[in-house]
Design brief:
The complex is a heterodimer.
Chain A: H1 4-16, H2 22-39, H3 50-59, H4 66-79, H5 82-94, H6 100-113, H7 119-136, H8 141-154, H9 162-171, H10 175-203, H11 213-217, H12 221-247, H13 253-270, H14 276-309, H15 312-321, H16 326-341, H17 347-364, H18 370-388, H19 394-402, H20 409-432, H21 435-438
Helix pairs in contact in A: 1-2, 1-15, 2-14, 3-14, 4-13, 4-14, 5-6, 5-12, 6-7, 6-8, 6-10, 7-8, 7-19, 8-10, 8-18, 8-20, 9-17, 9-18, 10-18, 10-20, 12-13, 14-17, 15-17, 16-17, 16-18, 18-20
Chain B: H1 18-65, H2 72-95, H3 103-106, H4 111-146, H5 160-189, H6 192-205
The chains are: A mainly alpha, B mainly alpha.
């Protein structure tokens, strides 16, 4: 019956591809294999008595509690159109420069876009707000779509983000450490994106023109300064307070997330944007995404429970710890697997299904403490690259959904290529110099 | 978004008859319950954020100003609310298609194939899964209720009510999955009028396609 684990592992990926909600597919498949195991006397139903206790563990998990808080904060900033104001204001600020709008997209993407952690949501939001503006001002379709796809997914691995919270929980590392560890790599990538934008703007000014003079004349210096003070400073301050309080150890990530959510509501209120539709929209989105993420975890908990019950975990761990090259071999394989899976399935599925299988093997091969954080950052960056890679990348797919028909899909694909190049350089740098991640973690 | 209203008074689709009519009545009843639960849950997200903020601030003031504000009751209330949100939102999230799918294939198939996938998924996955979770949780929950279990921490909340929510939530999820199965079965095997009725209700619920 040793084949039961491997068959289960392969079948789960086949079955979730059919397209039924993943959380329940996982739960259903787990029960199916439990029944087969019991039938052959290889598994006992009593093993599943641990399930209610696991569900209760999820309910009282203080780390996961941060997830709805960050979702709430991100959605509130988006629904109250504060994120849009931020993008437009930075656009005005940098507009007079060549490539200014693209730089604005990089900055906003890094700061805000992916607080909710769902690739689709952030790329769609950035695409709807900034793509039409960039195209109207004569930006090349390639640069516009490339920078939106890349920046929209970058926010996921720049703190604070839901994805990092979930990643930390699954790798059993501290959220604060992962936030600290991912900050420099994230900023490094953002810097490389910005450098690329500047490079294009100077080499090929037609691809990234400055805003036309007439548009700029509408804003006097004083008016612009007022806009910056009103639309740029407060959200920036909010993000810095949330991050700062975590890094200083004043607040836990969960506490900081709650403060961020209320802070976002206060900003909306001060801007006269906290009306009932905005509040309702934020609450709905928070409820939807929270139940989606947590039920995915509950489904995969049952899956993992049965998978262990049929000794699948031992099979995977043997497989992964006996790879040629030891730890390096594991890192290469883990990254390859995650990269390929990233074509088809979103972050949370990978975090909940694959990471619990990889993490014990990584630990068995001696990866621990700050190096586990490094591993987490590496996987996060890797996935983000995967989301950008044609023809399947999520990011491209979602941008296609909101881009005007005149923008050819091939332009979206071509636009992503330079950013994939940047990602690969970034990945290589982080892989070769783990200190970039680990240096600031105690 | 909505189609322009027709010029003449809208023609009511012929009343459904036989098993589709009874099935749709069940579906409507389940939908009504889960939608009402959902509307309550929405406000709980706000409550959760406010309680979380209270906890953050009270711990801060306690550390720095020796005020006595924080308590285990408030800390537990935050995760109680979190539990209520994700557990009770799940059934209506199933109705409106908010649970994440791998849509590489699903996004490319016809409406009919989608209904088949969702019918099969409800029957093979969600119904067994939620029924299992409901029944396996019952003994532990019964024990908890019988002894009026409370928090092991001083000043904590009663524990049994939140544990009682687990079987309730999976019960509602089970009902929602049965409603989905019936809905898709009626769409697949019922009359054109049934189909129209289901599609209208899908639109008003805000189902993501």
């Amino acid at each position: 019956m040793d084949w039961l684990g491997p068959v289960m592992f392969v079948l789960v990926f086949v079955l979730i591809f059919i397209g039924y909600p993943v959380a329940f597919s996982l739960g259903g498949i787990a029960l199916l294999f439990a029944a087969i195991g019991v039938e052959f006397g290889y598994f006992s139903w009593a093993y599943l008595n641990a399930f209610p206790e696991r569900v209760f563990g999820v309910m009282s998990n203080q780390i996961l509690l941060a997830v709805p808080f960050f979702i709430y904060m991100g959605t509130m900033l988006e629904r109250s159109r504060l994120a849009e104001d931020l993008l437009k204001t930075i656009g005005l600020l940098f507009g007079p420069l060549r490539g200014g709008l693209a730089l604005a997209v990089v900055i906003v993407g890094t700061l805000l876009a992916a607080a909710t952690g769902v690739v689709g949501a952030s790329v769609v939001a950035m695409g709807m707000i900034s793509l039409p503006v960039m195209l109207r001002y004569g930006y090349s379709p390639e640069l516009s779509s490339g920078v939106i796809c890349a920046s929209g997914t970058l926010g996921q691995i720049v703190p604070p983000s839901v994805v990092l919270v979930v990643l930390a929980d699954q790798l059993s590392i501290s959220v604060g450490d992962l936030f600290i560890g991912s900050l420099i790599p994230g900023l490094m990538l953002a810097g490389m994106y910005a450098a690329y934008v500047v490079f294009v703007a100077f080499k090929n000014p037609a691809a990234a023109p400055a805003m036309p003079k007439e548009e700029r004349a509408e804003y006097s210096a004083a008016a612009l300064a007022w806009r910056v003070a009103r639309a740029l400073v407060p959200p920036l301050f909010l993000i810095l307070v949330v991050l700062g309080s975590i890094f200083q150890g004043v607040a836990t990530p969960t506490e900081a997330g709650a403060l961020g959510a209320v802070g976002a509501m206060l900003l909306a209120l001060l801007n006269g944007r906290l009306d009932l539709p905005t509040l309702r929209g934020t609450m709905e989105e928070t409820a939807k995404l929270t139940t989606m993420v947590v039920f995915l975890l509950i489904g995969s908990t049952l899956f993992t429970l049965v998978f262990r019950g049929v000794y699948g975990d031992i099979w995977i761990e043997d497989l992964l710890t006996n790879l040629p090259g030891g730890l390096i071999g594991l890192l290469v394989i883990a990254n390859l697997v995650v990269f390929v899976l990233g074509f088809f399935i979103d972050f949370f599925e990978i975090a909940f299904i694959v990471l619990p299988l990889i993490a014990p093997a990584a630990r068995a091969l001696g990866l621990e403490g700050p190096m586990m954080v490094w591993f987490g950052v590496l996987l996060g960056m890797n996935l983000q690259t995967s989301f950008l890679t044609p023809p399947f990348g999520f990011s491209l797919f979602y941008l296609r959904g909101v881009a005007p028909k005149e923008l050819p899909t091939s332009a979206i694909y071509r636009g992503a290529l330079p950013f994939i190049g940047i990602q690969l350089i970034g990945l290589a740098v982080i892989a070769c110099f783990p200190e970039i991640v680990t240096a600031r973690i105690d | 978004m909505d189609p322009a209203p027709p010029q003449s008074p809208p023609v009511e689709p012929a009343p459904a008859s036989g098993w589709p009519r009874r099935a749709l009545a069940v579906v409507r009843a389940i939908d009504a319950v889960n939608r009402a639960v959902w509307k309550l849950v929405l406000w709980l997200t706000l409550a959760m954020v406010l309680v979380g903020t209270y906890n953050a601030l009270s711990r801060y003031f306690e550390t720095h100003f020796e005020a006595r504000l924080a308590s285990n009751a408030w800390i537990e209330l935050a995760w109680y609310l979190f539990s209520l949100v994700f557990l009770l939102a799940a059934p209506w999230a199933l109705r409106i298609g908010a649970h994440v799918r791998v849509d590489v294939l699903y996004g490319r198939v016809s409406a009919r194939t989608k209904r088949w996938i969702d019918l099969g998924g409800a029957l093979l996955f969600t119904i067994p899964f939620s029924a299992f979770a409901l029944f396996i949780a019952l003994p532990a929950v019964q024990r908890s209720v019988a002894i009026s279990e409370t928090s092991p921490d001083p000043g904590g909340l009663a524990r049994w009510p939140i544990k009682l929510v687990i079987p309730i939530a999976f019960g509602l999820l089970l009902a929602a999955a049965i409603a989905e199965a019936l809905r898709h079965a009626v769409w697949l095997f019922g009359s054109d009028a049934d189909r129209t009725r289901i599609e209208t209700s899908d639109r008003s619920a805000g189902v993501k396609d």
